[in-house]
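Reading group handout, session on sequence-to-structure problems. Before we discuss, look at one worked example. The prompt was deliberately terse, the way you'd type it at a terminal:

> structure FAD-dependent oxidoreductase

The input record follows.
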Amino acid sequence: MRPTLRENAVTYDVAVIGGGPGGLPAAIAAARSGARTVLVERTSALGGAAASGLGVLGYLDRSGNKALGGIAQELIDRLVAIDGSPGHFRCPVHNSITPVSPDLVKIVAVQMCQEAGVDILFDHELLDVGVDDTDTVRSVTVYGKLAKTRIDAKVFIDGTGDGDLAYLAGVPHLLGQDGTQTMQPSTLMFTVTNYDLPRFWAFLDENPEEMGIKEDYAAGYDVDFLRRTRGHCYIGLTEHVKDARAAGKFNIPRNQFIYISTASERLLAINTSRVTRIDASDPVQLSKGLETGYAQVWELVEFMRANMPGFEDVEIAQIAPALGVRETRHFVGEQRLTMDTLYSEATTEQAIALSAYNIDIHSGTGDGIELRVIEEPFGIPFGSLLPQQVNGLLLSGRTISVDSTVFAAARVMGTCMAIGEAAGLAAAMAVRAGTTPKDVDVAELRQELAARGAILPGTVRPAAIAVTTH
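And the output record:
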């Protein structure tokens, strides 16, 4: 008899789908609160884009005040203790940057899950969602290694980024930017080694026009800033990119080159690949996007060797195992946070996380970036985590209900981690009370989050942190 797929069935209190910034803290928070929790991840690593070497944004606001605590800060503290991060660094452009080691992120993430009692299912893809006649999610079916597993749970959390669980459950959604449906581009991150940054900085001394951010908000973003700041992001080489494009040697739809420091001074993360005009929630387009990304990685290596003093012998250290997706589906929640309601009393009173990054919209059709400074961090209301028309489900990470402009600030990893912790704690509270997430008392949720070290609007936040230097 021909072998068939194995079929398993398991039961949990809380099931979290997706182990990136929106899912990882959710699973840890739920398990620490006493809920029997499973975390399903479609790849072989937890951490999402942080596991690619991309620095984490959102820990400090424009004034240098801390905006993230709780599990998000605990992750960095644990990385710092094993040289997996040098900590938080202020930045005139990005407000702050927190470099990380991609591989140590993977290790610490698993350690934190194990200590909390989270069961992890790696290399499992979501196949189906079971919704009953009361529009309540009751189960999901996942697939991994010739086995289908049905997971029954009392509460589910969508940390997939693209909102695959919410989509299959029937939550109403929009695609891309409001009005145009254009999606921000994707990036295939990679890290490089064998370079000489002091030589490159000396080149910038002689060519200051190649420091690419000249806007008033970026005062102090110069070569000296790069030299004295261990954790930084370089954006520039505008003229060299333009010249290489004219010579037919730069075909990436990006007008500048970007590198980001990591936890190791021997590795830089390259965030310059740009895959436009794809819907990464479509598997065929996602696959084509990866093809484009791999071609761009090699093109960027050749560009560095030919155009960047100190990078003549640069080598690829690692290419991210998945395409970094900025934007796909936007789901409709009980509350939709908009630019008009960022600082409203209702938003502040209901807020379960802070967003401290700027509005950062990468063109989905061109080569530029629109960046608007957010002077004061804003709250993410709990209603943005509650999907319309579906019960038993919480949205987390970049699946939450916000307009596409707010999304451009709230989508970064730091903010997604804070949202994830709130989702996990809310799920455990619902399980404990025998109710649905929509019945969770927000005041109680906020109180419990604050007790666990989360930073919320309307509470006293730690004083400004000085710029960290070598």
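Points for discussion. First: Confidence is low (pLDDT under 50) at residues 466-470. Second: The CA atoms of residues 89 and 468 lie 5 Å apart.
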